[in-house]
């Protein structure tokens, strides 16, 4: 299902892929997040995604115009995962709600790996 906004003079439909890309872009701006992760289910291998593949580490569902976002991330070594997650949730929630005009109901964070940054 996609997000819908009724403006009074028409309707706006927002594709889930658009919401996923926006959420991914907001996520990688957060301190402690190295990038989005993609998991090869066959091999169980986690891969750091390049900036042009941000939506692949994000799953968005929309029910009753409320958004649920799953973020698969790789964090920097030495950071507090709970602090990164709190910052990530508030940043992504704010940015996606401002961008779309829809409510973010839930954000699930899956830490798929840790990277040592030189």
Q: How would you characterize the overall build of this protein?
A:
This protein is α+β, with helices and mostly antiparallel strands and 118 residues long. The protein has one domain (3-115): Cation efflux protein, cytoplasmic domain (Alpha-Beta Plaits). It is built from two helices and seven strands. The chain has helices at residues 16-28, 81-100, and strands at 3-6, 11-14, 33-40, 45-48, 58-63, 66-76, 103-115. Helix 1 (16-28) crosses helix 2 (81-100). It is elongated, with a radius of gyration of 15 Å. The termini are far apart.
Large-scale geometry? elongated
CATH superfamily: Cation efflux protein, cytoplasmic domain
| Number of β-strand runs | 7
- Low-pLDDT runs: none
The count of helical stretches stands at 2
Q: Return the domain count.
A: 1
The top-level CATH class is Alpha Beta
The largest sheet, given as strand count, sense and whether it forms a barrel, is: 5 strands, mixed
The CATH topology name reads Alpha-Beta Plaits
What structural class results from the helix and strand content?
alpha+beta
